[in-house]
Design brief:
Helix content is 79%, strand content 0%. It is mostly helical. Helix 1 packs parallel to helix 10, helix 3 runs antiparallel to helix 7 and helix 5 packs across helix 6. The chain is globular.
Length: 298
């Protein structure tokens, strides 16, 4: 019963995360019709920081946000800023379902980064995740068969930089809280994007400003909802729920923008998600196998 309640709470937080990401995608496309992405990113960070203040205060205030790993935060957020910029840019260039499908190659890039920088091993399951991710992207993009759209390459670059960012977050969570990580994300990305945003600045219209506010809210609290979901259930329970983003984004693109999903995008997305599921299944098996081995040490 207790496990069922925990899984239910995790599912509720994941519904919040999914809703936030779907709203951010639509808001990002609408806001980019009028505003430059640099300005959207800057407003998102500044407004998001103000929205985060209640959580900062409940966590001990700004003094509690001090960190001994400022250079790691700087490196992580430089990569995340580049990925977020590319992701928002791609939203206005290719169908929403393609953006999300290609973005799901991030776990493959993260696996490679974890092997290179965190000393993790590259087993057969991770190799399959990477291989299926690459094959899935090739099927979606179809180089040499159709015209490769620049938006597809941009979101692939976003997935790569997200992989760098997530690997560094994995390291940061060993010492810093979720609120602290989000706080430094917003502060550092506000500083990174200030000059580029001022260069292209224009005051948003009454029609566009609400979209920017939605981006700020969803971009900040989608991270928080995901972290809360992981507090109540294992990654093997939570992450498969995140895969709902692909069909939900496809439905949203069809309903709002009349975007059709071709067979290549569907097959490619299925392969990418299958690779991720295989990796999660392996992680679950390893976790169970590690329990008896860890008992003597305790």
């Amino acid at each position: 019963m207790e496990m069922q309640q925990s899984n239910l709470r995790a599912a509720i937080w994941m519904m919040g995360s999914l809703t936030a990401i779907l709203m951010m995608a639509v808001s990002g496309r609408e806001a980019s019709r009028e505003l430059d992405v640099f300005q959207i990113m800057e407003m998102r960070s500044v407004i998001g920081l103000a929205m985060l203040y209640p959580l900062i205060r409940s966590s001990g205030g700004f003094r509690a946000m001090k960190t001994s790993r400022i250079w790691q935060h700087l490196g992580r957020n430089s990569a995340h800023y580049a990925g977020q910029f590319a992701w928002l840019k791609a939203l206005s260039m290719i169908p929403l379902a393609q953006v999300i499908a290609i973005e799901f190659t991030t776990p493959a890039w993260t696996a490679l980064m974890a092997v290179a920088f965190l000393g993790e091993r590259l087993n057969i399951w991770r190799v399959l995740t990477i291989a299926l991710g690459i094959i899935g992207v090739v099927i979606i993009v179809r180089p040499g068969v159709g015209t490769v759209e620049i938006g597809q390459l941009i979101v692939l670059g976003a997935a790569f930089t997200f992989g760098i960012s997530f690997t560094m977050v994995k390291s940061l969570t060993r010492t810093d809280s979720v609120v602290k990580i989000i706080f430094w994300m917003l502060v550092i990305q506000s500083a990174i994007g200030l000059l580029p945003a001022l260069h292209v600045w224009q005051w948003p219209s009454i029609h566009t400003l609400p979209w920017v506010v939605v981006i700020a809210f969803t971009g900040t609290f989608s991270h928080f909802c995901m972290a809360k979901a992981l507090q109540y259930a294992d990654a093997t329970v939570v992450i498969p729920m995140d895969f709902l983003r692909v069909p939900l984004m496809a439905v949203l693109g069809w309903l709002i923008y009349a975007e059709r999903i071709d067979m290549f995008t569907a097959v490619g997305a299925a392969l990418i998600l299958s690779g991720n599921l295989l990796n999660l299944k392996n992680r679950a098996g390893q976790a169970k196998a590690d329990i008896p081995a860890s008992l003597p040490q305790s």
